[in-house]
Design goal:
The complex is a heterodimer. Chain A is mostly helical. Chain A has a domain at about 20-225. Chain A is about 80% helix and about 0% strand. Chain A has helices at about 5-25, 25-50, 60-75, 80-105, 110-130, 145-170, 170-180, 185-190, 195-220, 225, 230-245, 250-270, 275-285, 290-305, and strands at about 140, 220. Chain A has a two-stranded antiparallel sheet. In chain A, helix 2 (about 25-50) runs parallel beside helix 6 (about 145-170), helix 2 packs antiparallel against helix 9 and helix 6 packs antiparallel against helix 9 (about 195-220). Chain A starts with a helix and ends with a helix. By secondary structure, chain B is mainly alpha-helical. In chain B, about 75% of the residues lie in helices and about 5% in strands. The longest helix of chain B has 29 residues, at about 5-30. The chains are: A mainly alpha, B mainly alpha.
Chain lengths: ~300, ~290
C-alpha cells in the first residue's frame, strides 16, 4: 500500500526534530525532550497493556534500572555512554524474561498492582545497594551534551513508533489482540499465548530500559525517586489512555497533548497545578472515554459516509 | 525492644489498616474498581482532623461523625457524576476507572496541598502510654485501634444483617444474579462507593493521632489497602482483617529487623508472594 502523504509528513517531522537543537533555545529543547520521553514511554506501555491487555503499573522499574545501569557503567567502568545505555536496555530485558514468566500468570488488577509492587521492590533494592550510592544518588560528570540525550530519545521514540506500526499490522499483533480479548479462546485457536505475552512484555521493558540511559545523561544526577518516579510512570499511562489504548497513534497524540497542557499549567499555575491536572484528566476522560484517536477516526468515518 | 513489644505495635497498626482496607474492599467487591484515590481520602481526613484540632481545638473523636458524613456524600457524588458516566463495555472499563481514580487522586492531593499546605501534621492527643510488664502501649494507638475495631464490627454487622448489606454482598458475588433478584445494582454501587469512602475518611481521622502526614502521602495508604485486600482475598471481608494484622505485624517486624529502607519493601514482597502462591487470598475463598 503506497501512501505518499503520511510518509512525507513523517519524514518532514523527523527532519525538523533532528534539526531542532541547532536552532532552538534550551527551554524548548528541554520541552521537546520531555515530550519525546513521555511519548516513547507511552509506546512502551502500549505494547504490553494496550495490545496484549496486561495493564502494568510497573514499567518504570525498567526505566530506573536502565538509568542506574548506564550511570554505574559510565562512572565506575568508564564505558562510552552509548554502549552503557544499550547495556541498560539489555539489563531491562534480562530482568523482564524471568519476571514476565512469573508475573504474566496474574491477570487484571492483580497483574497491575503486582507490577506496581515489583517496581517499588526494585527501587528499594537498588536504593539499598552500596554500589548505587545507597539512595544518596549518583553524580555523573556534567560535561555531557543535552543534545546527546535528546537524539538518543528521539531515535528510541521513532523506533518505538515504527515497532508499533509493524506490530499493528503483523500476525504477532493479531495474536496479542486475540489474547487480550480472550486468552483461553486464543489458546485453543493455536496461539502460543505464553510466548506472545513474553515477547510483548520484553519489548515493553526494552523501550524504557533504553530510555533510562538517556535520562541519566539528561539529569547527570541519578537518585531513586527521580528515575523510579511512579508519577512519570502513571503520566505516560494516562497519555496512552487519553490518546487511545492499543492504537498506533494514540500514545503520540496523547503524549504531545498532555505534555503541552501539563507544561503550560506548570508554568502559569504552579500552586494549583496538581489539582487542575487531575481535574482536567477526569473531564477529558468523561468527554473522550475511548481516547482521542479512536474518537477522531470515528468522526472521519462519519464524515466520509 | 522485645518481640512482644514489636508484635503489639504491629497489631495496633493493623487495626487501622484493616478499617481502611475494608473501604477499599467494598468498592472493589461491588464495582471491580481499584480506587487509586482511596489513600488520598484517608490522608485528607487525617490532615483535616489535625487542622481542626490545632485551629478550633475540636476533639478528633467528635470529628468522626463529620468526616464520615463528608466522605459518604463525596463518595456518592463521585459515583453518580463521574464513575457512572464511564462507558459500560468491559474491555476498557477497567482502564477507564483506573485512570479516572488516578485523576481524582491528583485532584485531591492538589486540593489538600492548597487548603492545608504541605506541612506534616498530626493530632497531639493522648501522647502517654500504658506500661504492662515491660511493654509500652501508646494510648493514641490503642484508642485508634479500639475505634477501628468498633467501626469494623459495625461495618460487618451492616453487611451481614441489613437488606443493603445483603444487596452489596449479592452484587459482589454475582452481578447477573443480583439483577435477576431485582436488586437496583446502580443504587447499590453508589452506596458502596459512598460507604467505602466514608470508611476511608474514618480511618484517616484515626490515623491523625497515630502518624504525621501531609496531603501527598496518600499513595502509601492506597498500596497498603491493596496489599491487605490481596492478602485477605479481594471481596473477602474477614480476610481483609486477617490480612491487615499480617501486614501490620510484617511492617513492624521488618522495620525492626531490616531497618527503615528495606522495610519499605516488606508489604510489596508480602503481597507479590501471596498473589503468586495463593491468588485467591490466604483464606482461599474465591469470590472475585
Amino acid at each position: 500500500m503506497r501512501r505518499p502523504l503520511p510518509i512525507a509528513l513523517a519524514v518532514v517531522a523527523i527532519a525538523l526534530l533532528v534539526l531542532a537543537p541547532l536552532a532552538l533555545n534550551g527551554y524548548v529543547i528541554n520541552l521537546l525532550y520531555t515530550t519525546l520521553l513521555s511519548v516513547a514511554l507511552a509506546y512502551g506501555w502500549n505494547l504490553i497493556s494496550g495490545y496484549a491487555g496486561y495493564f502494568s503499573f510497573g514499567q518504570i522499574a525498567f526505566f530506573g534500572l536502565g538509568a542506574y545501569a548506564t550511570g554505574l557503567l559510565v562512572k565506575d567502568l568508564n564505558w562510552e555512554w552509548v554502549l552503557a545505555a544499550l547495556a541498560g536496555g539489555g539489563v531491562a530485558c534480562a530482568l523482564a524474561v524471568p519476571l514476565g514468566y512469573v508475573m504474566l500468570r496474574l491477570r487484571g488488577p492483580f497483574f497491575a498492582m503486582g507490577m506496581f509492587g515489583m517496581a517499588q521492590l526494585v527501587r528499594v533494592l537498588v536504593t539499598a545497594l552500596p554500589a548505587s550510592g545507597a539512595g544518596a544518588g549518583l553524580y555523573l560528570s556534567p560535561d555531557f551534551n543535552v543534545a546527546d540525550a535528546y537524539y538518543w530519545t528521539l531515535a528510541i521514540a521513532v523506533g518505538a513508533i515504527a515497532l508499533t506500526f509493524w506490530v499493528d499490522r503483523s500476525a504477532f499483533g493479531l495474536r496479542l489482540q486475540a489474547l487480550r480479548e480472550d486468552e483461553q479462546v486464543a489458546g485453543t485457536l493455536g496461539v502460543d499465548v505464553t510466548r506472545a505475552k513474553m515477547a510483548a512484555f520484553t519489548l515493553s521493558a526494552l523501550i524504557p530500559g533504553l530510555l533510562g540511559g538517556g535520562y541519566a545523561l539528561f539529569l547527570t544526577y541519578i537518585e531513586p525517586d527521580a528515575v523510579f518516579s511512579s508519577r512519570l510512570d502513571l503520566q505516560s499511562i494516562v497519555m496512552a489512555i487519553l490518546g487511545g489504548v492499543g492504537t498506533v497513534w494514540g500514545p503520540l497524540v496523547g503524549g504531545v497533548v498532555m505534555t503541552q497542557i501539563s507544561e503550560a499549567l506548570w508554568a502559569r499555575f504552579p500552586e494549583i497545578y496538581l489539582m487542575i491536572f487531575g481535574g482536567l484528566l477526569v473531564v477529558l476522560l468523561l468527554l473522550l472515554p475511548r481516547g482521542i484517536v479512536p474518537a477522531l477516526s470515528k468522526l472521519l468515518a462519519e464524515r466520509r459516509r | 525492644m522485645n518481640v512482644l513489644q514489636i508484635a503489639v505495635d504491629g497489631i495496633l497498626l493493623g487495626g487501622v489498616l484493616a478499617l481502611s482496607a475494608l473501604g477499599f474492599n467494598v468498592i472493589f467487591g461491588v464495582m471491580r474498581v481499584v480506587n487509586l484515590a482511596h489513600g488520598d481520602f484517608v490522608v485528607l481526613a487525617a490532615v483535616f482532623s489535625a487542622w481542626a484540632f490545632a485551629q478550633l481545638g475540636i476533639n478528633p473523636l467528635l470529628l468522626l461523625p463529620l468526616t464520615v458524613a463528608v466522605g459518604f456524600v463525596a463518595g456518592a457524588l463521585i459515583h453518580r457524576f463521574l464513575l457512572r458516566r464511564l462507558p459500560p463495555e468491559v474491555s476498557s472499563a477497567e482502564a477507564a476507572s483506573l485512570t479516572l481514580t488516578f485523576g481524582l487522586s491528583y485532584f485531591l492531593i492538589g486540593l489538600g496541598m492548597i487548603v492545608f499546605g504541605g506541612r506534616f501534621v498530626s493530632v497531639p492527643y493522648l501522647t502517654g502510654a500504658f506500661h504492662l510488664g515491660g511493654i509500652a502501649i501508646s494510648q493514641a494507638r490503642l484508642l485508634a485501634f479500639v475505634v477501628a475495631v468498633v467501626l469494623s464490627l459495625i461495618f460487618a454487622y451492616v453487611l451481614r444483617t441489613t437488606l443493603l448489606g445483603r444487596a452489596i454482598r449479592a452484587t459482589s458475588q454475582n452481578l447477573e444474579g443480583a439483577l435477576a433478584c431485582g436488586i437496583d445494582v446502580d443504587r447499590v454501587r453508589t452506596l458502596a462507593f459512598a460507604i467505602g469512602t466514608a470508611v476511608a475518611t474514618a480511618a484517616g481521622t484515626l490515623m491523625s493521632f497515630v502518624a504525621s502526614l501531609n496531603a501527598g502521602q496518600g499513595v502509601a495508604f492506597t498500596v497498603n489497602a491493596f496489599a491487605v485486600v490481596v492478602i485477605g482475598g479481594l471481596g473477602n471481608y474477614t480476610g481483609a482483617i486477617v490480612g491487615a494484622l499480617i501486614l501490620g505485624l510484617t511492617e513492624s517486624f521488618a522495620s525492626y529487623v531490616l531497618g527503615a529502607t528495606l522495610a519499605e519493601a516488606a508489604p510489596y514482597v508480602l503481597f507479590i508472594l501471596v498473589l503468586l502462591v495463593a491468588p485467591a487470598g490466604i483464606l482461599g475463598r474465591r469470590t472475585a
